[in-house]
Write a structure and sequence with these properties.
2 domains; TIM Barrel; 11 helices; 425 residues; seven-stranded mixed beta sheet; alpha/beta; single chain
């Protein structure tokens, strides 16, 4: 991607800077060469003679959103088996590029990969950065690591079906280290693992099951950290959460059934968690349409209830949460990303300001980009949304792409009405 040149001055009714503070009324944002030069009161804004002007009455300026658990290679998945046998790598690559474009159009200017088929996310990141295809700034992961017989190892041996495009299966610490070394060569930034099972599993490996040993997890972490990679894991079961935090994980996904010990470890190390709760809600509401059994749906209900309570505990205790919804399933399709934000307000009980902070500032921190993304502050990259209305009071606004005047990435308008010939500046 290429940053814009020159200066742009944007005025709007309000500015939410992403730090959690209430929005500032009558605001101006100044962008110079793709970087924020000023974000504050319109009355105190420095002059920029000759700059491009965008006047956005009735609008809010806020940081570009961060999808912190992004699966661009997942598409219309109706069963776990779809992940390894549904489409060939050539088609998955095209789908991933389309999903990246869609995420950007939905206001997500950055994303952290939560696991990738065929190592596509690494190459998708390169294509986005080279300006070949539009999409969010991406922190890439690759094939995931799981213990043999764990959640992501569902094909019995007699089928003779390999899982190489999806996961690296390990038995013991030595194989765990070898798996990480393969990912090092692939060029990933994040190593995704499966310490626990999930309600979506068929008859085994449910959300209370452990799928990796502590020794395997610790071997993953020490090897990854030796190569300056970060480690995260699909952590639902209580013991799996504790094991991941004891092993030195840099983030956890879901954190569904966290207990006091797990919470204390999480807070002591300031490890962020991405709950991904809208996926559970969608599984309960629409899963039967796509063949989910009542047993699996009941498991998702338990997961939703436990995950919501854990998310509330983490945030109220001062922990960090990212927003990311596990999109790409048939009942939870790409493009619905902002429904996760609405769900956290209307069903979990967070305020819009809390959710927006998680979806901007904390998301950028999880990516490792907190120094240059996630807030509207001088010196940071100009990834900005110009949205009609006030999402700090009505979070549902972000579900409606028609209300995006502009999706700005590096100072350049990439999507929204200004990018498509709508109402101008």
């Amino acid at each position: 991607m290429h940053a814009a040149t020159g200066s742009t001055v944007i005025t709007a009714d309000r500015l939410f800077d992403g730090t959690g503070k209430p929005p500032l009324a009558a605001a101006t944002l100044i962008i110079d060469e793709g970087t924020i030069a000023y974000a504050g009161s319109a009355a105190a804004a420095p002059l920029r003679p000759g700059a491009r002007r965008i006047d956005a009455p009735g609008c809010t300026l806020l940081p570009g959103l961060v999808e912190a658990h992004f699966h661009p290679t997942y598409f219309n998945v109706a069963a776990l088996e779809d992940l390894d046998i549904k489409y060939p790598v050539e088609y998955v690559t095209l789908l991933a590029a389309a999903n990246a474009r869609l995420a950007l159009e939905c206001g997500y200017t950055a994303a952290r990969s939560g696991g990738s088929l065929f190592n596509i996310d690494v190459w998708l990141k390169k294509a986005i950065e080279a300006g070949i295809t539009p999409g969010p700034r991406l922190a890439a992961s690759g094939r995931e690591i799981c213990g043999v017989g764990g959640l992501m190892d569902w094909n019995p041996d007699y089928r003779k079906i390999g899982m190489e495009g999806l996961v690296l299966l390990v038995n013991g610490p030595d194989e765990a280290r070898a798996a990480v070394r393969k990912l090092v060569k692939d060029g990933v930034e994040w190593v995704k693992t499966y310490p626990t099972g999930d309600a979506a599993a068929p008859d085994t490996n449910d959300h209370h099951t452990l799928c990796m040993t502590f020794e395997e997890m610790h071997a993953v972490v020490t090897t990854a950290h030796n190569h300056s990679l970060k480690v995260t894991g699909h952590c639902r079961a209580t013991v799996g959460i504790v094991n991941a935090l004891r092993a030195g994980y840099d983030a956890i996904e879901h954190g569904t059934f966290i207990d006091d010990e797990g919470l204390d470890l999480l807070l002591a190390r300031d490890v962020p968690c991405v709950p991904a709760l809208y996926f559970e809600h969608a599984s309960i509401e629409r899963g039967r349409e796509f063949g989910l059994s009542q047993r699996v749906i009941d498991g998702h209900q338990e997961t939703l209830d436990g995950g919501a309570e854990s998310a509330r505990r983490i945030l109220r205790a001062g922990g960090r949460l990212g927003m990311g919804g596990d999109y790409g399933f048939a009942w939870n399709p790409h493009g619905d990303y902002a429904r996760e934000l609405t769900f956290f307000v209307e069903h979990v009980g967070f305020t819009p300001l809390e959710v927006l902070t998680c979806a901007t500032k904390t998301g950028a921190e999880i990516m490792g980009r907190g120094a240059d993304l996630g807030t509207l502050e001088a010196g940071k990259l100009a990834d900005v949304l110009v949205v009609e209305g006030d999402p700090t009071t009505d979070i549902r606004i972000l579900e409606d792409r028609r209300r995006f005047r502009a999706v700005i990435q590096g100072g350049a308008i990439k999507a929204g009405r200004l990018a498509t010939g709508g109402a101008g500046s």
